[in-house]
Q: What sequence folds into this?
């Protein structure tokens, strides 16, 4: 059933909303992700960029089926061409789909980290693999016996990172794996992800660090207010604003310190307070009345995809 | 390093020693003041059964017990005696207080430990069941039972148990720690356990609800933590998560709570022992109070304060040993950080 031409992971118009209680007993649905579309192919690193609150981590949790009970998920997710339903998520997570979580709180405070890195698998093979990976990540043999509170921030990150590398997962979702690591450690970690991709695995790299992403990723998906505004080959981002498709991506490019360091006016709308039509329209220089009618669909453009009626 | 550690430990021991001494002193002062304010006249209680006793005789008894001295002097007399290791003689039982405590503590200890272990095991198990199926019907039923049990007074529950199990069903004896009419040396261990069962059950019913509710809350926190979310992301099922993370993170606070519950256990045993006429420290202390038997009252008060203090002390120690985060020093010879 394995078709090589099928994408490894396809997220199609994903939406996530949370049932919330406002005042007293007023219940309402808070939509935090809508029309989110990404594709990850085998052998590819997809970097997911966007500001805080743009729904990056929620995407990871939605793919793994880890959202809290008050969450409602819409849209479709396919893994190797098959719908990723609750049943499949349960079967695949940990074995075929691995998560690299983003903070030390994801480690059990009362368990030695070596044991945590190995997970529930107690085989000698797992132990060997864990030691290899620790060594590769420059974690000493003694680190195994330490408890999370005894680790520095960078060590904890590397332990979290190791948990996914130890498995033979086909798809690794790395949720901001590098902050807190030294630059050379971060580079090492990302080159491990690159090697995995080169062996045919798929990687989603959720990151704030666009610089690093540019060095290692194949594609970038730009998130804004819980939706994807653009998916583009990494080379286009390096080429500059001329090669970019969506006005938000261009604004992002201009805002980077190594470029113009020029922020754009306004701020990302909060979930529950989203504008009608295109979510970026209120801040967009290209805005026309057409933009306010509906959130434009994702369309193919110059080897990438964009969600904008004006992009060319 | 070794030497520093030794100094730290002796400092800690010194601190605890100071605390326990001040605690005992304060407890004895409060108990003494309360006993001297009591309207009960020990002489009257003493002579009540003896028929006509003249005023001169009463005066002589009072003088003999030293009741005519002012309270401060009486307290200081008692204090200086106890510092020499003499706890005095009980007015009520006319035996040395130390002897009574030693004799009765065995009964109370058996009672408290049985109910302590029972309530710990039942409470933790129920708490885990509620935590795992939180929000489901099992949870809400057990939770309600626990809330009811939390609010039920010990003596009332004891009376109900007596009524049901001893009077109606006839499964257990009505009271005492051994059968009536048998010499103490002839009582078998089984007869003792048989008499112990109902009071122990009553006592454990009072405290397991508390343990269960605390365990439930802690387990819910653990199961909703990031590390359990991550464990699920790695494909662990509920049982594996419980084994790897749930019990480990829940057991510690449960054990600590259990040791810290000695005070409630002691309080409960006073009531349970009275309801079941069980000859332990609890029934002795209420008898001492009702008869203004000050030496016995103070003796038992001090002893129970020491007992509760040890419980809390053990809880502190266990926390330090089991939770790696509380140890003062980092493991030996390890490079921390990078």
A:
């Amino acid at each position: 059933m394995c078709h090589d031409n099928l994408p490894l992971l396809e997220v199609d118009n994903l939406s996530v909303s949370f049932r919330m209680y406002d005042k007293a007993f007023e219940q309402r649905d808070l939509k935090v992700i809508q029309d989110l579309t990404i594709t990850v192919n085998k052998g590819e690193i997809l970097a997911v960029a966007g500001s805080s609150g743009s729904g990056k981590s929620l995407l990871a949790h939605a793919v793994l089926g880890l959202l809290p009970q008050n969450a409602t998920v819409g849209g479709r997710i396919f893994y190797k061409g098959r719908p990723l339903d609750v049943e499949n998520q349960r079967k695949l997570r940990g074995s075929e789909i691995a998560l690299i979580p983003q903070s030390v709180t994801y480690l059990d405070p009362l368990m030695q980290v070596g044991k945590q890195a190995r997970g529930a698998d107690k085989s000698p093979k797992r132990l060997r693999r864990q030691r290899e990976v620790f060594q590769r990540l420059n974690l000493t043999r003694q680190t195994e016996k330490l408890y999370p509170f005894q680790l520095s921030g960078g060590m904890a990150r590397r332990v979290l990172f190791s948990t996914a590398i130890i498995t033979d997962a086909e798809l690794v979702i790395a949720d901001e794996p590098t902050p807190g690591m030294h630059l050379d450690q971060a580079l090492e970690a990302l080159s491990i992800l690159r090697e995995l991709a080169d062996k045919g695995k798929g990687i989603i790299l959720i990151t704030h660090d666009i610089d690093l992403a540019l060095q290692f990723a194949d594609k970038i998906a730009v998130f804004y207010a819980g939706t994807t505004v653009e998916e583009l080959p990494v080379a286009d981002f390096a080429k500059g604003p001329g090669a970019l498709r969506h006005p938000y991506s261009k604004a992002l490019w201009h805002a980077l310190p190594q470029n113009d360091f020029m922020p754009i006016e306004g701020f990302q709308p909060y979930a529950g307070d989203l504008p009608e039509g295109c979510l970026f329209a209120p801040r967009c220089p290209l805005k026309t009345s057409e933009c306010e009618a509906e959130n434009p669909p994702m369309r193919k453009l110059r080897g990438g995809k964009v969600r904008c009626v004006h992009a060319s | 390093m070794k030497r520093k550690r030794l100094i730290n430990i002796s400092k800690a021991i010194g601190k605890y020693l100071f605390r326990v001494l001040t605690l005992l002193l304060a407890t004895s002062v409060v108990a003494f003041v309360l006993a001297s304010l009591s309207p009960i006249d020990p002489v009257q209680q003493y002579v009540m059964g003896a028929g006509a006793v003249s005023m001169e005789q009463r005066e002589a008894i009072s003088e003999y017990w030293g009741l005519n001295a002012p309270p401060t002097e009486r307290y200081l007399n008692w204090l200086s005696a106890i510092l020499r290791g003499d706890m005095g003689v009980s007015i009520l039982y006319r035996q040395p207080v130390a002897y009574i405590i030693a004799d009765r503590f065995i009964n109370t200890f058996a009672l408290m430990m049985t109910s302590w272990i029972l309530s710990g095991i039942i409470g933790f198990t129920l708490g885990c069941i509620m935590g795992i199926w939180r929000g489901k019907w099992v949870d809400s039923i057990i939770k309600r039972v626990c809330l009811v049990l939390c609010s039920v007074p010990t003596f009332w529950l004891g009376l109900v148990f007596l009524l049901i199990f001893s009077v109606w069903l006839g499964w257990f004896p009505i009271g005492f720690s051994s059968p009536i009419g048998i010499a103490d040396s002839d009582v078998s261990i089984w007869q003792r356990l048989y008499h112990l069962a109902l009071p122990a059950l009553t006592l454990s019913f009072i405290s397991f609800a508390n343990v269960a509710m605390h365990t439930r809350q802690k387990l819910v926190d653990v199961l909703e933590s990031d590390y359990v979310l991550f464990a699920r992301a790695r494909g662990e099922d509920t049982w594996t998560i419980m084994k790897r993370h749930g019990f480990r993170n829940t057991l510690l606070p449960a054990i600590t709570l259990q040791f810290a519950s000695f005070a409630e256990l002691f309080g409960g045993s006073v009531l349970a022992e009275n309801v079941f006429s069980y000859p332990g420290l609890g029934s002795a202390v209420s008898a001492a109070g009702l008869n203004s038997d000050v030496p016995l009252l103070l003796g038992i008060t001090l002893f129970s304060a020491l007992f509760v203090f040890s419980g809390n002390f053990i809880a502190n120690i266990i926390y330090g040993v089991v939770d790696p985060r509380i140890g003062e020093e980092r493991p030996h010879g390890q490079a921390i950080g990078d």
Q: What stands out?
A: The mean pLDDT of chain A is 88.
